[in-house]
Amino acid sequence: MKYKLTLISFLALLLASCSSQYQALQESTDIEAKYKGAFDFFNAGKYAKAAALFESLQLPMNGTPQDDTVQFYTGYAHYKDRDLSNAEPCFETFINTYPRSPFADKAAYLRIQCLYNETYRYQLDQTPTYKTINVISQYISENPNSKYKAECLKILEDLDKRLDTKQYESAKLYYTIEEYKSAHYALKNVLKENAENIYREDILYYTAMSAYKYALNSVKSKQKERYMIFSDDYYNFVGEYPDSKYRKELDNLFEKIQKFLD
């Protein structure tokens, strides 16, 4: 029990000492001491305190040889503290201000990580996703030999998949709620905008099924022309995916309507 109290007392004193040291550095006009202290806090994992100290050094160290270091580590400390909303604009400003700095490539990559981690799952607004894709595409174009290229390509693949999923699921929703005419239009529009959508097979299947069910539920006088649309969608599907898991079902429906079309 006595040992535990001693340890608690020691930790409390250590915490108070760190807090006191940080406060003293914040109020200090000794730039070199503050610069060293910022790195001491950073290396000790006290990233929020390090970020605040680096920020306080930006103006007094402007134009010095350490200027880009202070600017980079301001963003880096925010990033390590998981404060991405503050880290990202720091990195963006850094890249634009110091494009030739030794830290520039890492800053660009860390900015991409910030943007990526602030995107949303496919059900939500994808504006941040589009922004991140544009930033990555520009980065890869300007830095084709970067050591971060492979990781950026993986992020890009994940974001592209997210957009494909959103497009597909949004269009398929009309089919789910039995709005077959709207489903047919929306699904065809997905491939019109993005022919390489990873769900292309499923989209073509639901396009054909939407046409079939729309015709099936139509008044008799309209059924023939609408079954012909299904027939066109059927031929498009089997032409691309002759061995699809959906083939048997579509074949049965196609055979079913032949007598009606004849």
In short:
This protein is mostly helical. Helix content is about 75%, strand content about 0%. The chain has helices spanning about 1-25, 30-45, 45-55, 65-80, 85-95, 105-115, 125-140, 150-175, 180-195, 200-215, 220-240, 245-260.
Describe the structure in your own words.
The protein is mainly alpha-helical and 262 residues long. The chain is 77% helix and 0% strand. The protein is built from twelve helices and no strands. Helix 2 packs antiparallel against helix 3, helix 4 packs antiparallel against helix 5 and helix 7 runs antiparallel to helix 8. About 4% of the residues have low confidence.
Task: Fill in the keyword field for this structure.
rod-shaped; mainly alpha; about 260 residues; single chain; about 75% helix
Low-confidence segments, ≥5 residues, pLDDT <50?
7-16
Q: Please, how many helices?
A: 12
Strand tally is 0
Main sheet overview = none
* Binned strand content: under 5%
Radius of gyration: 30 Å
CA-based shape: rod-shaped
What is the arithmetic mean of pLDDT?
91
Class inferred from helices and paired strands: mainly alpha
Distance between the termini: 94 Å
